[in-house]
Please model this.
Amino acid sequence: MNATDMPATALIAEDEPLLAANLKAELQALWPDLRIVASVAHGEAAVQQALALRPQLLFLDIRMPGMSGLEAAQAIAEDWPDDGSPLPALVFVTAYDEYALQAFEQAAVDYVLKPVQPARLAQTCARVQAVLKQRTSAGGGAIDAALGQLRQLLGSGPPTAPPVAPLTVIQAAVGNAIHLVPVAEVVYFEAADKYVRVVTLEREYLVRTSLRELLPQIDLQRFWQVHRGTVVRSDAIATALRDEAGKITLTLRGHADRLAVSRLYANLFKPM
Model:
């Protein structure tokens, strides 16, 4: 039996056990050859198991404890092995209404609404089967296409909060003092668990917030996300160095640190 004849594999990430069990049962009825390799209850486990088991298809709940389905998809894309194997096809399971789901349709990533309806899930199965067949024949181009869809999705996902005026100052506690750090002087922000490192040319600060909470508050025209955990001021970038494997590393003006660019954001760097 060759690779194209092997049963398709899938992972389910859903934090509600009854919904996860129902989705698994419906999939087994509609697509008997599909092999569910894991069912997990949160985004971190989805990333870990997806990278370990390398399924062809992911069913990701949008809202899960901790890491969301979108964030899990981003982490999987960034950490997926560079061996030419295609990224998993993504199907999001969500309670969002039809208006909010227009972003998913435009990004060409399928979705199913909760509670899952068998007729709609049957359409999803047929669509995914066609996508998997196309990816088998597309080779390396399938990875580029999947990355493009994910980039679009991350840029047009469901709204979370109204936009706010960009921050101009970061208030960072250092001992008993609060330092007011102009955002214009920040070279880059880096996620550090529940904190964010705020790096300037002179020193760095640690602020008690997550990068996810900080991102909506900074000017993303000036600050570019180059990795799920790194956002850099664009005019602080000196060079983007691409190695033989295609991986990009950034050098900075006046700062010795070098920053890795994930392949999800590699499209930011191309000659004019």
